[in-house]
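User: Could you go from structure to sequence for me? I need the amino acid at each position, not a summary. Structure tokens:
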């Protein structure tokens, strides 16, 4: 059969196939192009995987790329792109992201301000503060980062999350002037009372005992809450009493040591009696409000916890040490 097919096809009409294992050759005039598709694809992939050279990009675009790096990565990037990674605008953004306010930002005597050096000093001061609060604040003041003024110190503490809350409490516990400014910087407008308390305790950690400091904290909070919500018609005394009721309810519902949990009816009755005993009853303070307070704590958990979205909230089983004293 094969011999018959060979005789049927005239010589010269069948193409000559190249040997296996050799690249295919195409002849076009005097030029011969050798195609090695696998090597070409590999080379192209390697070039695409390489990080682009930021120095060849427009400066605005390169800075926008480096803006997404943290301080450690930015220092590493400066080994390759020194001029771009040390840009003052980048370090200014890092400073104001981690420390929203510092007195040195508005110090006109130190212009131009090198924000890379400012960041390193603020970071060093934060580490010192988290080890020793008094020594750390002294570092901030002596370096000119924060002015030795209660309002300036309060603004600095309020605008950063780099300071450990327990160390902040230790520092401000003996500085009531700073506490007053810290509370005044918070805004509780159109905020439900338990949620406002959670926000308050997320900024100012409560003490480990039920001493006068906790009472002063709640007094400052009650005054600020009434200032932010004048349309509610509640007095400072009524808010103060309800804050203590919410703390007691939080401990009761979340503590595993309390077997007989307080019911909604009992909470309404107890809170109504406590608020009425203070002579602070207003039209806006009624049983419906007390019922809503109970529901909020029952669904969202402890008022001493940080604010949690409702869909993620649940009744907490952890009781902070300073509130366990209410048991």
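Assistant: Here is the amino acid at each position, in order:
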């Amino acid at each position: 059969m094969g011999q018959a097919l060979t005789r049927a096809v005239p010589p010269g009409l069948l193409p000559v196939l190249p040997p296996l294992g050799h690249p295919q050759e195409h002849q076009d005039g005097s030029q011969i192009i050798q195609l090695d598709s696998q090597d070409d694809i590999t080379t192209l992939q390697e070039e695409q995987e390489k990080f682009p050279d930021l120095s060849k990009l427009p400066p605005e675009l390169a800075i926008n790329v480096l803006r997404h790096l943290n301080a450690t990565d930015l220092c590493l990037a400066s080994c390759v792109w020194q001029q771009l990674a040390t840009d003052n605008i980048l370090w200014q953004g890092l400073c104001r992201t981690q420390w929203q306010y510092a007195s040195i930002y508005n110090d006109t005597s130190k212009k131009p301000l090198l924000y890379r050096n400012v960041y390193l000093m603020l970071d060093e001061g934060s580490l010192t503060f988290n080890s020793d609060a008094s020594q750390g604040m002294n570092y901030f003041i002596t370096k000119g980062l924060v002015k030795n003024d209660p309002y300036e110190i309060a603004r600095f503490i309020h605008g950063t999350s780099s300071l450990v809350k327990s160390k902040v409490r230790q520092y401000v516990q003996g500085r009531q002037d700073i506490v007053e400014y810290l509370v005044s910087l918070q805004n509780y407008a159109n905020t439900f009372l338990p949620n406002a308390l959670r926000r308050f305790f997320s900024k100012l950690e409560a003490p480990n005992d039920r001493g006068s400091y906790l009472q002063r904290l709640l007094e400052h909070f009650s005054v600020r809450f009434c200032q932010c919500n004048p349309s509610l018609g509640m007095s400072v005394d009524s808010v103060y009493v309800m804050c203590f009721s919410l703390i007691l309810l939080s401990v009761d519902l979340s503590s595993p040591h309390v077997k007989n949990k307080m019911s909604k009816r009992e909470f309404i009755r107890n809170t109504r009696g406590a608020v009425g005993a203070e002579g602070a009853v207003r039209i806006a303070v009624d049983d419906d409000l007390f019922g809503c307070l109970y529901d909020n704590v029952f669904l969202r958990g402890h008022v001493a916890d940080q604010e949690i979205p409702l869909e993620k909230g649940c009744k907490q089983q952890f009781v902070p040490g300073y509130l366990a004293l209410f048991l």
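One structural detail worth keeping in mind: The first strand starts at residue 25 and ends at 28.
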